[in-house]
């Protein structure tokens, strides 16, 4: 999108192309002739329903996606949040309080507390104990709770068997140190946790197997009253009710109260400032970092829970890393289509009928060509314009000169002027002495004052936005942006 914004600003053509295995597409963007790249958006990729992913998987792709999300939820997000709290506690809490619901604030608080609390690992043996507890939680206890809520012979209110159709009835796993996948999970999980806390990693499988065999875990006791959603509709309804409840809670408390509530559950900053912590950034191409090892073991263990055929490491790496092999013939073909559109622009074609967007799938085979979409036309006063049009203002004018220019040349009265998130002029929020003073200042000077930064010497122009009225005082909804060239 950055490239698209630059092409619109400088009025340059763009020929965008992409490949996805045997699929390919070409989009042509020509100034004043077609819409821009960002004018339309691709539909979002279809996602796996949450309840299917969390409770009722039936394909290996479901367990791989669950394992990928599980990796982020254990080894990336909590450590990132704890690191932010360590680095700038005040700003972190203000940001969390402002941008999150009560439910999310509690979850973030628990993540930080768990990451920096007394239960954090002190040595590699602690990491092994944590990994063993994680195995029990994910592949035994969670499944046992699911079967407690929905036994194998459970019948729905409609009289149908609950575990039927796409719902596979799972079974719990009992840890076996002699099972390679079980041990692979312990090795990967313990080493991933050790990395987070700067504990020396250990790759001796025999030592880890000997230590994990000594660990005793508590016997599972099912919890009464646990709600497990059967479908995404139930989940959405619950989230909506929770959102309403959270909004009421937030209305009854101010930001200071919310921050103090979080602080009461978090360790004091002085106590945790010396703790070294770092999150994992998922990297699929490094076979020594245990990332794919963990996801492969986790995906196949969950597949074993639901009696889904396991996948080899290569397939899991390809799906988890979203790797789609490039095909030379697709690349060659799309390159040729791009060159054809470039030749047309060089030859000076101005008619939209001359250009063609392309959509191709060599596997079918399918070759589709269509005319690009023209830019959407808008109107102010009696003037039509598109996203390619703008007001060009030359010279470093004072604010008063700038306003007079638009009143004289375009019959527009400027009521607000901004660039990006910086407000340069708004008479309703300015005291009279300040307003009179700013009217005599150059816009570049006002910009430097507002942003508290010098404009770099290589920058010759600014993109300004304005709201305005006509000479009779009527609001005008939309006008083109302004290219203000002051150097």
Fourth-tier CATH superfamily name of the largest domain? Ubiquitin-activating enzyme E1, SCCH domain
CATH class label of the largest domain: Mainly Alpha
Number of helices: 18
Would you tell me the overall average pLDDT? 89
Please give the radius of gyration in angstroms: 30 Å
What kind of sheet is the major sheet? Answer: 6 strands, mixed
Beginning-to-end CA distance, first to last residue:
27 Å
Low-confidence stretches: none
C-alpha geometry? globular
Beta-strand percent range: 5-15%
CATH topology-level fold name of the largest domain:
Arc Repressor Mutant, subunit A
Integer tally of domains: 3
Broad structural category: alpha+beta
Please specify the SSE layout and strand pairing.
Elements: H1 2-10, E1 14-20, E2 23-29, H2 50-54, H3 60-75, H4 77-87, H5 89-99, H6 102-116, H7 124-149, H8 180-196, H9 205-213, H10 232-251, H11 255-265, H12 269-272, H13 291-305, H14 313-320, H15 328-346, E3 357-361, E4 366-370, E5 378-380, E6 383-385, E7 391-394, H16 399-409, E8 413-419, E9 422-425, H17 432-438, H18 443-451, E10 461-469, E11 475-476, E12 482-485
Parallel strand pairs: 7-12
Antiparallel strand pairs: 1-2, 2-3, 3-4, 5-6, 8-9, 8-10, 10-11, 10-12
Helix pairs in contact: 3-13, 4-5, 4-6, 5-11, 7-8, 8-9, 8-13, 13-14
